[in-house]
Design brief:
The chain is α/β, with parallel strands linked by helices. The chain has helices spanning 16-24, 44-55, 69-79, 99-107, 159-165, 176-187, 212-228, 234-237, 241-254, 256-259, and strands at residues 3-9, 31-37, 59-63, 84-87, 92-94, 114-123, 126-134, 156-158, 192-203. Strand 1 (3-9), helix 1 (16-24) and strand 2 (31-37) form a beta-alpha-beta unit.
Length: 265
């Protein structure tokens, strides 16, 4: 079973090495890493070329202008030859070397369309200290009508899911990943399974964690998604998730046993 890992990049030279090295460190051998660069002006392409020989044919990449991160992800999905597809952002890295192995074991069950797990956030100047642990343990499909979703960087689904239900909708500015999950998990009820492990270490400061303006846009995108799929309950319930986000931050910082983070960088 081949797993395709899609990384969208743009001027990512400062962080992409960590991303690529974490892919190379995976114990599961049957993967391809597809990097879609948006025509970077920094050393991103040079870095890709430097590390390419280490992949031994398992890296494919392009560098050309695009219409943003979701357009780049869609290009990567179209290029993917794997049975299973996952997204790894260019400023994130795998928390441990057995992530793809655990994904492959679960996806060998033909009844399962997708898997997801946990992630954690770190500050850019301290990659070892967890500032928020995002667990998908208690997620149920109906919670998407309240704005909840599994941690998207931990979401791996069969390529056939993208072929049947479509990829990312470019009309969403920040939360196209939410709309896609709403489409496949809530509307079409694909079979997904939770894996109790920390998949990905994410640096804070990305598009979805960049302050009040980004959260305002996320709410707008969520409402757009609810309207697109005729889900009326979401308009009233979307704010309910914020107290839980605050609780996650508090628990992560105050109780080390809660976060239980493992990093490899």
């Amino acid at each position: 079973m081949r797993i395709s890992i899609i990384t969208a990049a743009y001027n990512s030279g400062r962080t992409l090495r960590d991303t690529m090295c974490s892919v190379l460190s995976q114990s599961y051998p049957d993967f391809e890493h597809i990097i879609v660069d948006g025509g970077s002006k920094d050393n991103t392409v040079n870095l890709i070329q430097e590390l390419e020989p280490k992949y031994k044919g398992r890296l494919r990449w392009i560098s050309e202008p695009d219409r943003g991160i979701y357009d780049a992800m869609n290009k990567g999905i179209a290029m993917a030859t794997g049975d299973v597809v996952g997204i790894l952002n260019s400023d994130d890295f795998y928390t441990s070397e057995d992530v793809l192995t655990k994904v492959a074991i679960q996806m060998m069950d033909d009844k399962i369309d997708a898997v997801y797990g946990d992630i954690h956030f770190v500050d850019d100047d301290d990659l070892q200290t967890c500032v928020r642990y995002y667990s998908s343990r208690y997620f149920y499909w109906w919670m998407m009508a309240m704005g909840y979703q599994p941690a998207h960087p931990s979401f791996y689904c069969r390529k056939s899911v993208y072929e049947k239900y479509g990829a990312f909708d470019l009309s969403f500015n920040i939360a196209s990943d939410f709309e896609h999950m709403l489409r496949v998990l809530f509307v079409n009820r694909i079979k997904a399974r939770y894996i109790p492990m920390d998949f990905v270490t994410m640096r804070t400061g990305g598009a979805s964690t960049a302050g009040i303006a980004s959260h305002r846009q996320i709410i707008i995108d969520h409402y757009h998604a609810y309207k697109k799929h005729g889900i009326k309950t979401g308009y009233c319930m979307d704010f309910v998730r914020y107290p839980f986000k605050i609780a996650e931050i508090f628990m992560s910082r105050m109780f080390p046993a809660y976060r239980n983070c493992r990093t490899q960088i």
